[in-house]
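Researcher: If only I could read C-alpha cells as easily as an amino acid sequence. Walk me, if you will, through where the backbone shape changes along the chain. I have put the entry right below:
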Amino acid sequence: MKLSEIHRRTIEVYETQAGSWDRHRPRTLNERVWLDKFTAAIPPYGTVLDVGCGGGDPIARYFIERNFALTGVDAAKAMIEIARTRFPAMTWIQMDMRELSLNQTFDGIIGWDSFFHLNPAEQRLTLMRFVTHLKSGGALLLTVGHTAGEVLGQVEGQRVYHSSLDPTEYKSILIEAGFCQVEYVAQDQRCGMRSLVLASCLHPRGE
C-alpha cells in the first residue's frame, strides 16, 4: 500500500481501533516533564485545546485534574465518545485538526502523538490554524519527528502514517508566526524518545 493511501486511512484506523487503543494506552504519564513545562507557560486554570485527544486519558486527565478548562478535538467519533463518557463535564468535539475552526481562542494548544499523522503540507497549514486559535501570550506543544521525512508507525497492528518537517523549519514557522520562544528537543529519553516542540509567548503579527 502506498504511503498516500496509508495516510488517507489514518482516521479510519483510529475509528475502528479506538477501544483497544484506549485500553492499551499507557497511563504512566512519562509525558509529565513536558506537560509541566507547557502548563508553566500558560495561566493557571486557563483554557487548553487538546488536538487529537483520543479517549482523554492520560493527557486530558492531566489538565482536568489541575482545573484547566479542557476542550478535546479528535477526528475519530469513537474516540470522542470514550472521552465524553470518561469526562462528561468537559467539551468534546469531533473535528479533523486540518479543518480546525472553533469560535474560541485558548491559552494553550497541545497535539500529543497526533499532529505527526499529517503530511508536511498539511502540517504547515495546520500550524497556522493553531496560531489563530491561540490567545496572545499562548503556548503550543507538539510531538514531531527528529528529522524531515515520512515513516510508518503502528496502531493496534495496523500501519499508520507519520511525517515531520525539519526541526529548523518548525522553529522558523513558529517564530515568524509570533512566538517569542521556541524550544525543540529531539528523541527525549524522558518520554519514550519523542521529539517535541514547545512554542510560547505568542504575540501575533500586528499586535
Q: What stands out?
A: The chain has one domain: 3-202.
